[in-house]
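Chapter review. Work through the record for LuxR C-terminal-related transcriptional regulator before attempting the end-of-chapter questions.
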Amino acid sequence: MLLERDDETSLVARALEQALDGIGSVVVLAGPLGNGKTALLRALSRHPGAASFSVLHASATLMERDHAFGVVRQLLEPVLAGAPAQVWSGPAALAGPVFDRDGTGRLDDAAQPVQLGLLSLGRNLSAIKPLFVLVDDLQWVDEPSLATLELLAGRIRHLRVVLVVTVREGDPLAERPAAASVLAAATRRLRPRPLSPAGAAKLVRAKLGRECDEAFGLACHETTGGNPLLLTGLALAWAVGGEPPTEANAELVRAVRPAQARERLVACMRAQPEPVRRLLKAAAVLGESAELDVVSVLAGLDEPSTAEIVRALGRLGLFRGAGFAHPGAREAVDDLMSAGEREQFHLRAVRLLYDLGKPVETVAGQLLATSTPQGLWAVEALRDAAHVALRRGAPQTAVAYLRRALLDTSVDGPDRATVLVDLASAERLLDVNAAVRTLSYAVALLPGPRQRAAALIRLTPAVMGDAPDAVVSILRGVFEEFGRPEQLSGVDRDLALRLEARLRFICRTESWGLAGTCTRLDELQEGEWTDSGAARELVSVLVNSAALTVGVPARRVAVLAEQLLAREPASSAHSASAAPLLVTALGAADSPGVVAGWLERALVAAQQRGDVVEQAMIRTEQSLIHLLTGRVGDATLAATDALDLGAWNWGSVGTSAAVVSGAVALQLGDPVLIGRLLTSVEAEPANPCLATMTGLLRGHAAVARGEHAVAALTLADCGAHLDRLGWRNPVLFPWRSALALVKLKLGATCDAIALAEEERLIAEEWGAASGIGRTLRVLGRIVGGDRGLDLTGRAIDVLRTSAHRLELLHALRQRAELTELPDSWRSCLELAEEIGAQRIAHRARVALGFTAPVNTGGKLTRSEQKVAMLAVSGRSNQEIAEMLDVTSRAVEKHLTNTYRKLGVRRRSELAEALRSVGSASPA
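Structure tokens for LuxR C-terminal-related transcriptional regulator:
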């Protein structure tokens, strides 16, 4: 029975109408326990407006929160059963293991599938028929499913999808980052109100029968404040108590405080015979997914007694089947137990489940509810459970198990250190900084340098690169205990080399880490590192540092990086290898040719493992390689995929991927991608490298808005910081060229020439053709005239020897603009169409007279640009209005003007239109 919810259903009906036009939305039904969220959600699935939709429904439970993708499977399995095969096309195939499309029948074998694959699967399904997705109790959704919902919520504005979730206010689990992100994406947040006196009376009469008179129903409303759950509980307790629901008893109801409605339910349970109470407690402790025979054993009952009690509880309305009829009934059982009794029940459950050989995570789940140390066996059980959780893609659950295991270790012994090392490995997938801190605690407890070194190398150099000073001090101390690797042999030498690799990566922005790069490379002979994985790891770090700092010629860096990458199996764990360092070095050295196929194989392996962090890293690296080989469309797609997978979440992926992602966005000049990156930055990053990259992105955005003075200050500040870091590579960080073009717009031609000349000298020192060609092109644009045309021609000649065809295209366009010759524009058009640079291809067609400009209404104003970029990033009109401190009407006016100027009809077409017209790229 749904009462007094017309306003809520009307708002959701409007959201369904908009979704049919391609404008999806998120609706949140919020409130305290029992305000009718679940009943409303169920009624929405039967709403007439949902007839044109595929209705997907899932209910999350607290006890199934550790079941990876449980909610996703509830949502999608029914609709997939009759879906055509094409819904699995493209990236959607990556989600196959969740639904046993690999034929193994085991989700653990597939681990966590690609979140992007699940989003693509939903997109394919919505293309066939719009989706109406209903999720009850968001606060209890398992982590992988929650990550999928977060990704969906972030993209939903451009999909034919309406997502409705319920959430219990005040529940700590609702404050998890992914849950908070879903809630923040809401276009409508509804809070079902308490029932009116008339509605309350109608509800109570439905529960107690026609003999329930109006005065009694009104008294129930006064007692409960109209909360549907409290009303239901009060009616249930009254029915069990045997008193008639008449006006004569209305005063008795009024004497009951709101909280006493639950107390009456508890009193009803407390009045039951002792065996019934034991079974209720056992069922509550084991959870809704527990088997009835296990509940019976824990309660100390035989099978006939259990069956009889369950039937009796069903008649009372407390049980349905073998579980509680309502969450409120299960929660009320907690009031029957003291804290000590609850602890003892969980401890007995632990032993029972362990002795019965139940899955190790079932045992671990019970251990999480206890605080009494259980000894070594519990530590091993929790470590095993953490391993299983990691295999199925639930690192947060693994972290919880391992933190509980610390209760059963010594305070300062090696057993505690062992658990801390495992904990750091699990935290690595969630929070790099937390993992490094945990590892530092473990190292302090280990007895000797060999054990401490073995612990420190559990995290890769790239992860250790963000270590705080205290951890760097520990690492340096352990390294000094070992002494120079050349003085060691065997295992000690390997440990020392790996320690040095981490220390040099951490210090890659300091004189010690940079000044000796060339010398150290000379010391490590090829014959030595060919057969030593530890030496190859160190050489990879040195090669990466050399590429960033231009400390070694590009050709030598490329040769070394290619040799090292050839010895890195693409199927191995990407985040645990040196491959990310080598890919960046090869890209910066203008030698990306051997990388593309290797990364394809690495991506397939990461998808099979279900490691989203690795996939984010690999897609980021692929975006760089696609960019440097002129595959603009593929670079944009890979960069977008990487961002969807969390490449800009440096807390879990690490800073290196974020730096590369920002560099790619800058060189692509993609306003949508840059806007999304900037939108994802909630505060100024503490990491100096990330802060600099964010500043460069903001500088580019300022250029696009025409704020050249602001852009000049921002780019100059970021460039100075890069110089202080020693990162001078002109292929990855061409900030001088960007600033030179801004200076040109400001009329400071001499400054512009000086900056471009300085970058040309650095580029020639480095020796990569793409960097040299870019600086020649920029100089040509600055000086103009015949001299500019000559420099542009030289740039084209140099760039024809480079794989960087996008940079060659920029030079061809510049020559065409300087000469206005049809042949020049035809050369530009041919390459633009070949590499997928649609904006430049369109410019060339216009110059050749093939077509008219798409932008028929004039250039976007600064305000229209801001509103458009926020709209593309997924913000609602109200959110945009609040961010810009304007009215919603002003936002609507700006969007209307933007649609007219860009020739689009709806928000879902806006992103592509912005890409087609591009922005004022500084380089």
